[in-house]
Amino acid sequence: MSIYEQHLGRQAANFTALSPVSFVERSAEVFGDLPAVVHGARRYTWAQVRERSARLAAALRALGVGRLSTVSVMLPNTPEMVEAHYAVPALNAVLNTLNTRLDAPLLAWQMKHCEAAVLITDTEFAPVMKEALRLLRDEHGHSPVVIDVADTEHAGPHERLGAWLYEDLLAAHAPLPVLTGPADEWDAIAVSYTSGTTGDPKGVVTHHRGAYLNAVCNAATWTMPHFPVYLWTLPMFHCNGWCFPWTVAMLGGTHVCLRRVEAGAILQAMREHGVNHYCAAPIVHNLIINADAALREGITQQVRGMVAGAAPPAAMIEGMAKIGFDITHVYGLTEVYGPAAVAVKRDSWAAEDLSEQTRLNGRQGVRYMLQEGMTVLHPETLAEVPADGQTMGEIMFRGNLVMKGYLKNPAATDKAFEGGWFHTGDLAVLEPDRYVKIKDRSKDIIISGGENISSLEVEDALYRHPAVLACAVVARPDAKWGETPVAYVETKAGSTVTAAELVAHCKALLAGYKVPREIRFEPIPKTSTGKIQKFQLRERARSSSAIE
Fold first, then answer.
1. DSSP string, 434-455
2. Higher per-residue confidence, 442 vs 255
3. What are the residue boundaries of the AMP-binding enzyme C-terminal domain, all occurrences included (predicted)?
4. Are 541 and 519 spatial neighbours (Cβ–Cβ below 8 Å)?
5. Are strands 116-122 and 94-97 parallel, antiparallel or unpaired?
6. Average pLDDT rounded to a whole number, residues 395-408
7. Averaged over 390-395, what is the pLDDT?
8. What is the b/e burial string over 373-404, where b = at least 16 CB atoms within 10 angstroms of the residue's CB?
9. 256 inside domain
10. Is there a single domain that holds both residue 418 and residue 489?
């Protein structure tokens, strides 16, 4: 035995399992008098948020929640959602944040799959949750304890479904003396479900160590200062808000809550509360770009936005730059805790013209500093593709910012981790500076006459037309070419454009075979986080092709 292995073991004085719960305790201790949460007329300091979270933890413990119990929450971006991110992990329990846009059967399926012991639900969602709980009971034989949240900022009816009201439950329990976290940092902290576009959704299980490290990465990647004022435009149910509930706690910042994501409400909150950071999918940034300029008056602070959730169109990045918002482009998936790569801005980029800056910032970039590996590999041989900006492969990750695996799905877990890498399914190239640039999802590449067409490239061209608000390009079956691109377009309010004009616009920017053969002006289906649901559009395209 080496001398360095003698009498030098782990003990309470020199080792603590990593958990983001520790950030809450520190901010309550050091910054207890500073603002932590703003929600309408409600205001809480860090000392108050810590106490409320500790009361919730005590209440959940009294209801039988313990290590690796699951607590599901059906909540918008409210103080209760913030507190759930602190209280549930403090019990070493597992947080399951439900997508507020899902229907009752899928909500019931998810709660049964993760074996939810407790459900915390906002009264706004009582109609869908009542049906979900009925299905959960009648079809799955499962009935979690239900806690109702009656948010004062919700103007509608407050129908109760459970035996407990959130505020009454907090008042009935003394706070735990300390929010401790797990004994083992590899323990699960959350289970988040993928969209389930093919078959049942998969439950992505993440751990305390990864959540802690990604929260730190967020701050370091974005060079966030102490005491940021962070606006919740990103749903906290999406990848646990990309770990930002814990990042804001680490920095002693202020959570500015927002029940509804609307341009007017976003810009009002930025002006009223001095918001300087927010995260969102491209569609939300587009809302800000296209809002009446008068709504941005009075916002004098530098506002920094983080964009992910879908490959951002170049026109969006350029548009944000023109209105003075500083945008950082990150990339990731639920399986890597949200963002795990970033287009790190180099000082030399500032000397480039706006168009080149937009191109550089539009790349998916390089791995987060605490992620051990990210590159583009051949999906079968796992050989790294040359850094030539031309050879396509699949983006793959490895390291501490990768999920534990898929809940109750060992086959899917093994497939995702084949060869010691997490396979994302995103096709990309490695550019000469080793920054990654996505070309498409593997299922979104259009193969027309033997030529590969990137739907993202065609969408970028469409977004450069001033009348286009949102667009998506998918494959349509074609008897001659196999597939041809069809574009679905939503136009900006007050703007008009014809299909012929958009085709001509694309012809000026793209090779002829990449130009959409058809433009359809139709509503584009989106998830609650603003991601376009291309699988629905592919079904539309196939159906219309069969009819015709």
1. S-EEEEEEGGG-EEETTEEE-H
2. 255
3. 457-531
4. no
5. unpaired
6. 97
7. 94
8. ebbbbebeeeeebebeeeebbbbbbbbbbbbb
9. no
10. no
**Residue keyed to tokens 């289906």:** 525
Does residue 355 sit within a domain? yes
Q: Which residue has the tokens 């008068």?
A: 294
* Residue 438 contacts residue 428 (beta carbons within 8 Å): yes
Task: Read off the pLDDT band of 548 (50, 70, 90).
Answer: very low
3-state secondary structure at position 504: helix
How far is it, in rounded angstroms, from Cα 424 to Cα 336? 10
360 SS3 class: helix
What the block records as the tokens of 202 is: 């998969």
Which DSSP state fits 306? E
Please state, in angstroms and rounded to a whole number, the distance separating the CA atoms of residues 308 and 343.
11
CA distance 316 to 423: 28
Give a yes or no: residue 245 inside a domain.
no
What are the angstrom distances between the C-alpha of 210 and each of 17, 80, 346, 397, 400?
Answer: 11, 23, 27, 13, 6
pLDDT of res. 404 = 98
- What lies within 8 Å, CB to CB, of 451 at 6+ separation is 513
How many whole angstroms separate alpha carbon 315 and alpha carbon 465? Answer: 9
Pair (343, 318) in one structural domain: yes
Q: What is the pLDDT of residues 182-202, one digit of tens each?
A: 999 999 999 999 864 445 789
Identify whether residues 278 and 425 lie together within a single domain.
Answer: yes
Which is more confident, 443 or 375?
375
Residue 497 maps to which CATH number? 3.30.300.30
Write out the residue range of the structural domain in which residue 463 sits: 445-547
